[in-house]
From TrEMBL:
GO terms for cellular component: cytoplasm. The keyword Oxidoreductase applies. This is N-acetyl-gamma-glutamyl-phosphate reductase. Residues 4-105 form the Semialdehyde dehydrogenase NAD-binding domain. InterPro entries: AGPR, AGPR_dimerisation_dom, AGPR_type-2, NAD(P)-bd_dom_sf, Semialdehyde_DH_NAD-bd. Its EC number is 1.2.1.38. Belongs to the NAGSA dehydrogenase family. Type 2 subfamily. SMART domains: Semialdhyde_dh (SM00859). Catalyzes the NADPH-dependent reduction of N-acetyl-5-glutamyl phosphate to yield N-acetyl-L-glutamate 5-semialdehyde. It catalyses: N-acetyl-L-glutamate 5-semialdehyde + phosphate + NADP(+) = N-acetyl-L-glutamyl 5-phosphate + NADPH + H(+). HAMAP family: ArgC_type2. The active site is at C116. It is found in: Cytoplasm.
Amino acid sequence: MTWKVFIDGEVGTTGLQIRERLEARPDITLVSLDESRRKEVSARADAAREADVSILCLPDAAAKELVAALAPGEARLIDASTAHRVNPEWVFGFPEMAEGQREKVASAAYVSNPGCWSTCAIALVRPLVGAGLIDPASGPAISGVSGYSGGGKAMIAEFESGEAAGSFLYGAAQGHKHLPEMTEYGLLTKAPVFVPSVGQYAQGMAVAVHLPGLGAEGMAKAEAALRAAYAGERFVSVVAASENEPRVMPQRLNGTNRMELSVHGNPETGAVVLMAVLDNLGKGASGAAVQNMNLMLGADEGAGLE
Ligand SMILES: NC(=O)C1=CN([C@@H]2O[C@H](COP(=O)(O)OP(=O)(O)OC[C@H]3O[C@@H](n4cnc5c(N)ncnc54)[C@H](OP(=O)(O)O)[C@@H]3O)[C@@H](O)[C@H]2O)C=CC1
Ligand SMILES: CC(=O)N[C@@H](CCC(=O)OP(=O)(O)O)C(=O)O
């Protein structure tokens, strides 16, 4: 069995990484457009119609433009941009998120690939809300660090040319574009307070959820809730705190489609921190898109991924 796949935006950061994962696969034939036509909407729509699944690795506006050029049912799409993440007509492409989510992805016409920050945040927060350990109205504090490839070609150029003055925090005004998806799929009623940062390295991400009052008992329950939520999962797992102590290394899972979660804290003060590590271009983007594509095509979910 072979399938045709179109990567719209295949020369961008996310698209290239998907292409690398698919090129080696005998079961996939890539549908490609010439350089001169790759931004022409009619050519992109034709390519999407020809393919069994198309993966959009584009700015939000270009993703919306392609969707608008297609009639419902003409193409199956995975959108890696932010454009459709909380749109109820799209299935959120995080198969491990909830029971039944994997099956929804497999049968969907339109799948939105989650953001890298939100994959980490949702993975940590959602099971704890479910277990009654996070109050959904509490607006939990979340922080994190990403490699600069998370900002695509423009930020890579900024860092690699020396134009960027160094690492920075951002999003302090609480308008980060992943907040709606974190809130909705984290089962929160109030958005988290989220302060991400970009480090002076290319790739890899670590995210921390801060729970100052969870306590020693809550800490044990949090780990149990996370272990139960991801039991048997191949790409999401809970690891011992010692794996991420004393230093959390955001580049630890680079080149993989894995995300590792851990629970940390001080039993005496009751302060607890949940931690997630992934490759922003692996489980945070390109790896996740390939996993969703595999599910939609009926291929082995882990094909082309490690
Ligand atoms: N980088 C990351 O870690 C993550 C990125 N994402 C999301 O994935 C999407 C792609 O991001 P990323 O790969 O980083 O971005 P890049 O800027 O690296 O790549 C975007 C690509 O889209 C192309 N493009 C722009 N407009 C059009 C158009 N109208 N038609 C066809 N192609 C077009 C660009 O062309 P050109 O080369 O000419 O500029 C570029 O190659 C974004 O929505 C981003 O937010 C999601 C999760 C993580
Ligand atoms: C480091 C950095 O700048 N990261 C990007 C998010 C990358 C990403 O996940 O983009 P999507 O929202 O399209 O998924 C940001 O915070 O805006």
